[in-house]
Design goal:
alpha+beta; FAD/NAD(P)-binding domain; 15 helices; binds flavin-adenine dinucleotide
Length: about 475
Amino acid sequence: MPILSPPPKSFSVTVPVLIVGGGACGLTAALAARGEGSEVLILEKDTIPRGTTSMSQGTMCAAGTRAQKDAGIEDSPEQFFEDVMAKVEGKTDPEFVRVITREAAPTIDWLSADHGIPFAVDRSWNGLGHSVQRLHAPPEKTGEDLMGRLLQAVARAGADLLTDATVVDLFADESGRVLGVRVERPDGSQEDIGCDALILATCGFANNPDMIAQFIPDMAGAHVFTWENSQGNGIRWGLDLGAAVADMTSFQGYGALAHPQEMLFNYNYVIDGGVLVNKRGERFSDEMADVSGQGVKVMRQPDHVAYMIYDEILHNKYKHLHETRQALEVGAVKTGASVSELASALDIPQDALQRTLADLADAKAGKSNDAWGRDFFGTHDLAPPYYGIRVTGAIYHTQGGLEVDENAQVKRASGGLLPNLFAGGGAARGMSGPTCSGYIPAAGICMAMTLGRLAGQAAARLNN
Ligand SMILES: Cc1cc2nc3c(=O)[nH]c(=O)nc-3n(C[C@H](O)[C@H](O)[C@H](O)COP(=O)(O)OP(=O)(O)OC[C@H]3O[C@@H](n4cnc5c(N)ncnc54)[C@H](O)[C@@H]3O)c2cc1C
């Protein structure tokens, strides 16, 4: 994917704001650019835009939103900032985190008020780094639904979207100004499109084994569950143009992917008092310490699997969730009238699971300290019948990427800014710091839509 120079004598068409990638970031950027009165064209590789966004639960963190106020939740960008900095143990750029934590709420409020996307606070998510309830999602709480609503909004706003359009090259001059892109269609034909400003919304590099081996060598060969087009295209173009990158070792992991069905399973069961045990029937972690790092802990267990154990109270509370319904339909969830029956259904040692759940009951009753240091405050004692599901860990998406300023404009490694290049979502550096443990829940969509809005606005204003 080289940077091509010189450009063609003329482009077939030139647009003020060109966006590569039609996921949450690209679509939000398009809405923002249209809001500034700019013409905009989104180029999307797939026939139907879905992206990593469609795999998500469609939730985004933000602090101080109207939805939070309506729900009686007191929160502020300052508190959000403190929570993120605590999660990353101070190991990130505070100025960048200030921008994201300040701009996330206006992004949600604007998408709700101007584009009819009804975000509400997801009250089922507590803790895991957020000191108050600040996860927001459209009613269905799925990424598919979020994508559907964004696509409808983009159509209403009059932004152009060209699908089956893979950007294969960029044209740039010696100053690093992007002049246009080369697009390849499924029949192999190519077209060159010019632009005044370019927004890279191509997500990260989770599905590029070479880049994983280069930047996150510890995770080379690890299980990956992500969108196939997350191949780091935008990051590589940025690097070729001399952009700065940061936190390239960082990623979001997850330790609750139904296995072998390869389906996302809800963590709510754990949050509300369920636990994870390994093939030996033993717990191996404080499951609430770090939801992203939990993925790596699961990957380190025998056969790289774990079993989420919960009870009928939790089953009834969350069985309506989309992911749970799917898992129930395919028979991934097992039940047992007793601990022994559940152990047999899951094919793990009965005695060990009995001991584990007895220890758990003691810890919940305050008779002993939890061996893993987990605080079970507010959770109930698990009671029969019991439920369990085999899960594995995976890399979901990478968190490192192009460094951007407060307008989502890409920084040069040598200082200053590239003249007309913007980035957001997985293509940009996240706010998770250098490791997988710094990921705070729902930061992925937050980075995509917040930076998307900032990029769309600034790219459009560049031409005014
Ligand atoms: C299973 C799973 C669950 C998750 N759950 C959550 C969650 O609930 N909350 C949260 O905040 N985050 C979640 N995340 C992370 C979140 O989904 C991502 O951070 C976010 O969707 C990134 O948005 P994006 O727009 O940058 O990328 P994407 O949504 O992946 O969009 C990028 C688009 O660019 C296109 N593209 C790539 N290269 C080219 C090219 N060369 N030419 C044209 N088009 C191209 C792709 O086809 C794709 O449509 C989850 C991730 C996974 C994998």
